[in-house]
Target: FAD binding domain protein
Amino acid sequence: MRHFDVVVVGAGPSGGHCARQLAKSGKKVLLAEQHQTFAQNDFSSGAIPIETLKRYNLPSDVVGSLWQKIVIITTNIHQTWECDRPRGVVLNFAKLREFLAQEVQRQGSEVWMGHRYIQSDQENGKTIVEFKPYGNSETVKVSTQVLVDATGQIRAVMCPSKQQNLPYLTGTGTEYLIEVGSSDYQKYAQKLTFFLGHKWMPKGYSWIFPMEPNRLKIGSARLNRPHKIVEKTSSLRTYIELIINDYLQGISYKIIDVHGGVLKYCSGLQDTYYRNNVIAIGDAVSTVNMLGGEGIRHGIESAEIASRFIEAYLAGQQVDFSSYQQEMHKTYKKTWDWSERMGISKYLEYSDKLIDRGVSYLNQLSTEEILQVLFEYNFNPIYRRILPYLRYKLSAKIRNLIGQVRSSFTNINILKGVD
Ligand SMILES: Cc1cc2nc3c(=O)[nH]c(=O)nc-3n(C[C@H](O)[C@H](O)[C@H](O)COP(=O)(O)OP(=O)(O)OC[C@H]3O[C@@H](n4cnc5c(N)ncnc54)[C@H](O)[C@@H]3O)c2cc1C
Model:
């Protein structure tokens, strides 16, 4: 039986990056993925801030396009923020994961595509991991010192039985990749366009992202919980087609691919982070942020944190991964709790009018501030800018009201003949 220092199950952004980091530091790593190619589950839209590339040493080959403009459209409002330089990228998700896997191989470790994790057992102080290779009835077993669950929302290693009594919040997204003419592409190039409100996507939001020259990604995603006000919704495809027919009016296009996926977030980050020598990263421990469903860079960040603890464990400096869980909670808990609360109000409680009003207030924010809100989940700009504005509007309303009361008293006095 082959032996590895670390076996990482799942070659998404978190598994790929974790395997890459550990292989780089000289560990013998196996990265195993159930799909045979990265084109097979190319489900993510891939919009991230540009700093992520430098921070995690990602090459320009994994970039589909750049963006420097944010557009938010609601049922009745249209707001735009523009920067003078690119502030983010839309990743080619398949190329990103392929690049990470190639890095693992380049460092002398192994990548097994088409290998589905079945189960693992403890045997003589080691963990035996069983995989089912695609198209083969025989399973393959390997042994490892550390096993990493990077299987995303499936949590195949940590939670093999589907019955978990945890407070999960799930969301579902579908996306069309369409080919359009170059003049149509130019209209939507370099910007992320988001659609909010009950017309475009009750319980969630829709989007148009530029994927690469002449290709646009048009998607819709929503939370799978009842809305306080909206009783009935249509299929996700209906909302995507609404954007194509109503917003992109008359565009001529060809559908290249339809893909999508599920996000499963555990409220209060109550996931199991480790059990003995098994550790979970990325969406398997809810690193996706539920305000906008952004999860790629957070999954990669969790892989960086985990690889430090795995190295310490392999070196005998840690006896378990409890400090990994503490570090993850320190990094995410406060902001993620807050984002979840904001997401639930915005997507599941607000009336359409309130969404319109909220977005109209956002025009008080500068481009830097809107980026802070959307990508750093820093809501201070809203309080700093919008509360004084609301206070000003309220006091103007009160002044107006007092004026009206005064003038009606004056009118009454005039009618009574009192001077
Ligand atoms: C429609 C949609 C759009 C999104 N858009 C964005 C976006 O624009 N920006 C952003 O940052 N995030 C986005 N996200 C979220 C982001 O894609 C995820 O948060 C991110 O991919 C999580 O990375 P991960 O590596 O933890 O898990 P995943 O990417 O889910 O990777 C898990 C891997 O494990 C494999 N696996 C599962 N079970 C097994 C098994 N038994 N054996 C072997 N392999 C297995 C899977 O095949 C998969 O490759 C989007 C998500 C969806 C659904």
